Structure formats: C-alpha cells, structure tokens
C-alpha cells in the first residue's frame, strides 16, 4: 500500500516528466517529442477549459433560468437542485482557469471530469452530438489527469523552481 501512495505522489508531483521509453530515442527526437507533448496538453487544456468556462458564464447570465433548469431538466442524483447549481456553476468557472494556467492541473482535470460525468448523468435525454462532445472532453481530461498539465504549465514551472511538490 505504501508503494501505491508513493507512486501516486510521484505522479501528482512531477507533471510532464518524460516516460521511460523515451530514453532510448536519439536526443533530437526526444526534444521534438517533449515539445509535441507539451503543445498537445496545452491545446487539450485550452479546448476543454473554453467549453466549460463558457457554459459557466451562460449559467450566471440568468441565474433564475439556471435554477429552473436544475429543478426541472437536470436530475442530479445526489444533491438538491440549488446546491447542484451552485457547485456545477462554480466548478465550470473556477476549474477551467486552473486548467488553463496548469496550476493544480491534475486536480482541475479530475474536478472537471466529475462535472462532465454529472452533466451527462443528470440529463434524461442527451443528443448523440452532445454526448460525443462530453466523451471528447472526458478523453482530453483523462490525458491531463494521467500525464499532468505538461511542461508549459505553472505546475511544471513550480517543479523546476522548487524541485518537489510544496
């Protein structure tokens, strides 16, 4: 069990660290691969963050409509509608900012994954195109949760500066 937590802490504390299979590649390829990975993770973070942040902005533009939707359309299984509205909207506004900055990138990705799953589960009938969007966001969030926010993030900057997790 101690080994599991050590690996978990290592994964959470070393964002964007290269995988062991990369060490057998020539230096120029490792360099290109490192930058390609950083770019891909940044693009994934920006793409997903935009979708959730805009959704959160829509919710706060007309709060009474948002509350009505949570009471009638979105059937949140565990929370009262008003609590779910506050938590969902808060998550959609705060977590994308963290994701874009790459600050607590894995935390933000997991948090948005919860918001994403709850959104899909709370809708009684979801259009196939909307479901495909949620699945794409889920896959991109999974990548950030597994590999961290990447080298172009505040998490990586913090690790380079301090060497360990604070």
UniProtKB/TrEMBL annotation:
Keywords: Cell membrane, Membrane, Transmembrane, Transmembrane helix
Transmembrane parts of this sequence: 93-115, 135-154
Subcellular location: Cell membrane
InterPro entries, per the entry: DoxX, DoxX-like_oxidoreductase
Membrane topology note: Multi-pass membrane protein
Chief subcellular location: membrane
Short name of one Pfam family: DoxX
UniProt family annotation: Belongs to the DoxX family.
Name this protein carries in UniProt: DoxX family protein
Organism: Roseateles albus
């Amino acid at each position: 069990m101690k080994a599991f937590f050590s690996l978990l802490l290592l994964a959470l504390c070393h964002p964007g660290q290269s995988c062991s299979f990369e060490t057998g590649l020539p230096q120029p390829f490792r360099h290109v691969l490192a930058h390609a990975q950083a770019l891909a993770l940044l693009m994934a973070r920006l793409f997903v963050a935009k979708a959730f942040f805009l959704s959160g902005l829509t919710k706060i533009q007309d709060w009474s409509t948002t509350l009505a939707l949570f009471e009638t359309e979105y059937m949140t299984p565990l929370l009262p509608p008003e609590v779910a509205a506050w938590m969902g909207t808060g998550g959609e506004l705060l977590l994308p900012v963290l994701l874009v900055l790459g600050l607590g990138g894995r935390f933000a990705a997991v948090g948005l994954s919860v918001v994403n799953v709850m959104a899909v589960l709370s809708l009684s009938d979801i259009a196939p195109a909307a479901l495909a969007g949620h699945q794409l966001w889920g896959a991109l969030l999974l990548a950030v949760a597994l590999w961290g926010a990447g080298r172009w993030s505040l998490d990586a900057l913090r690790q380079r500066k301090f060497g360990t997790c604070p």
